Amino acid sequence: MPKVGMREVRRAQLIDATLHTIDEAGLSGTTLALVAQRANISTGIVSHYFGDKNGLIEATMRHVLRDLWAATARRRAAAKPDPRSRLRAVVAANFDVSQISAPVMKTWLAFWSQSMHEPSLKRLQHVNTRRLYSNLCAEFGKAMPRAAARRSASGLAAMIDGLWLRGALSGEPFDTKAAIRLANDYIDLLLAQHA
């Protein structure tokens, strides 16, 4: 009889192994066998919990996205109630420590690429994109007309993604403070136009 709670322990162990395998071997080089070997368990157990590689990648991205959503909720809750502070909280969450380790960054890059071909990953990407846009739009909407809020939300979302992507691809340590500063300057410019 399996131990109580073992399922969640195994899933977490396999997700961690997946992140590190993608970091070292890339998505194309990641196999159930490599993940199992890294986790020191049988390939059959990986298949039991996730079915196939796509199921494993989807579960791994759901884990990464939960970390992002938790960071966003935590930072928004701690922010002052004004739009500037709450927008800055959303920006900071996207550059949270949970999102910038090498294994997570490489997994994000692999996810974005694979989401163009895999419907379940495309749905996850769509949910993530809509959630970011919705959060930004709601805050900008408190300071400017609806059409301007939508444009501002689209622009800031693109800036966040662009700064994150440049940081991920630079090959150097990610200067998150500089990225956050640039995004915050952009927020200030947008809000100043509607003050």
From TrEMBL:
Specify the HTH tetR-type domain's residue ranges: 8-68
Question: What Pfam families would the database entry show?
Answer: TetR_C_6, TetR_N
Task: Tell me the DNA-binding residue spans.
Answer: 31-50
Q: Key word Transcription present in the record?
A: yes
Query: Keyword Phosphoprotein, does the record have it?
Result: no
Describe the task this protein carries out: Repressor involved in choline regulation of the bet genes. Repressor involved in the biosynthesis of the osmoprotectant glycine betaine. It represses transcription of the choline transporter BetT and the genes of BetAB involved in the synthesis of glycine betaine.
Q: What is this protein called?
A: HTH-type transcriptional regulator BetI
Name the species this protein comes from: Trinickia violacea
The gene behind this protein is betI
